[in-house]
Amino acid sequence: MFDLATRRIIGATILMLATVITIGMVWLTEEQRMARFEAMHKAKAIENGALLYEQYCATCHGPEGEGVPGKGPDLNPGVFQHYEQLRAQGYANSLRNFIKLTIAAGRPIRSTYRAEEVYAEAMPTWSQDFGGPMRPDEIENLVEFILNWQAAGPAPAPTPSFEAVGSDLAKPLPPGDPQRGQALWNQEVKQASGMAASCKACHSLKPGEVLVGPSLAGIATLAAERIQAPDYKGQAKTPEEYIRESIQQPNAYIPEPDKYAAAPGVSKMPATLGNQMSAQDLADLIAFLMTLK
Question: Which pLDDT value is given to residue 171?
Fold first, then answer.
């Protein structure tokens, strides 16, 4: 038998070896564990970014980043191609930062992705740092979602399969359903185009709360007042017609142009929203907004 001192030495040696083996096993599996954690974190960020994209971006850039003619350029693959063009001209920032800064600060001038394409409005700022509605973590998630397209490949070209109401104010509208209109506003149902309405991305229903555009609290009452205003130059004769005109032809009358005009005579509100809506979509949305007195 070993004496007490020897037994202590042997015990300490065994304990040390067990500790070394345990640390080694942890070290060997840590890289895999961290990789799994990072993959889960990235997947969650992409999922959150997809929801943000649908809410804030799809109206101008298409549900899969394919672009909307006359409204916003394709991002898939357009944003990656544009970045490579900038790099060829000496742009030194990363692709991630390029996308992040574009979302955060917007574009103060109309897009020039391609010389033959012209878009009606400048891109607004989206970061809270620049007066927009999005937190820094939301912008990071949105960037992660857009970067995910790079691996997925380009989006298919859009194939509209519905009759858009467009900008024609004379087009007859069916009776509106205010409950469905509210569901459209809340993005609980989609428009006939398959895209979610983006109204609440720019307009709050809280009195006095300004996002990109003015609050629509009490818009039914306000619409009745505006068509009587001396500076009103639109065609509307009723509050319903005013709301319709504001959606289909937002440049017809721009209230407080110092706040809500992107350029002289050009509203910050996209002029092509009607291209994403059916007559029923528009009628339902107007019916809902007319309940906001």
Answer: 93
Residue 168 lies in a domain: no
- For residues 131, 136, 142, 147, the Cα torsion angle rounded to the nearest 10 degrees is 120
Half-sphere exposure of 65 (CA within 13 A, CB side): 20
Question: 251 near 265, Cβ under 8 Å?
Answer: yes
Tell me which residue of 155, 173, 1 sits closest to 78, measured CA to CA: 155
Which of residues 152, 167, 195 is at a domain's end?
152
Alpha-carbon radius of gyration of the chain: 27
Q: What is the pLDDT of residue 5?
A: 66
Taking 50 as the pLDDT cut, the residues of the chain under it are 115, 159
* Predicted local distance difference test score (pLDDT) of residue 37: 57
Closest residue by Cα to residue 142 from 156, 155, 152, 127: 127
DSSP-assigned beta bridge partners for residue 266: 263
Helices marked H in 4-114: 4-56, 58-61, 78-88, 95-105
Q: Which domain holds residue 286?
A: 178-291
The model's pLDDT over 66-88, given as tens digits with 9 standing for 90+, comes to 887 767 788 888 888 878 877 77
Q: How many CB atoms lie within 10 A of CB 77?
A: 16
Q: Give pLDDT, residue 151.
A: 65
Contact assessment for residue 128 and residue 137, using Cβ atoms and an 8 Å cutoff:
no
Report how far residue 182's alpha carbon sits from residue 187's, in angstroms, rounded to the nearest whole number: 8
Tell me the whole-structure pTM to 2 decimals. 0.56
Q: Flag whether 166 is in a domain.
A: no
